[in-house]
């Protein structure tokens, strides 16, 4: 077997082992949300958060050519737990596939996924994930995922569901985001890329989360700015105009009449 073939088998075996461990251990951890089991020997730990009914799971592992650290929420709902467990498995498997042949012991790959949790409203939380990964080459990439979680109904809410009319919400909110970003002159905004985002036809507010009475829009590293700017954000207060765009039940859940 030649060197390249051996490397391919090695990455396949590593990815399979990680996927197996994650599947087995997470199934054990999530099997009883009231009494969460922890397996620190396999890199899993869990702590309480400031939010009732949400715990924070941490998974860490490393080998000579890579390291992984992942933070994940744990709820009392199997459905929510399965959603985020699948997200974790997909992200790690994609990372393992990408580093194949691109990292070495001298320059190992790294995946770090951090989670910030914010209370958006009544029984409604913003979950903001930051994925930082080195998969070879010169740069570390940073991307984000944001989800709204309704613990009253135990489901993930698509951001577009908040609005009466998504098209009208796009037309009103995105120019405000554009203006807020351009006002941050130190970001070095790529205006052409930002304009493309403003005019994206099927945009569903997937990079938006809610915190402290504001809609916050988060962009990936390099998406609309140079790498030095990291992951830029724009904050839009939920004023009277924005409130009129919200469905009544969501406006009430966010604390507005």
Automatic annotation (TrEMBL):
DUF3298 domain segment(s): 161-238
Keywords: Membrane, Transmembrane, Transmembrane helix
Record field: transmembrane: 12-30
All copies of domain Deacetylase PdaC, residue ranges: 61-139
The name this protein goes by in its record: DUF3298 domain-containing protein
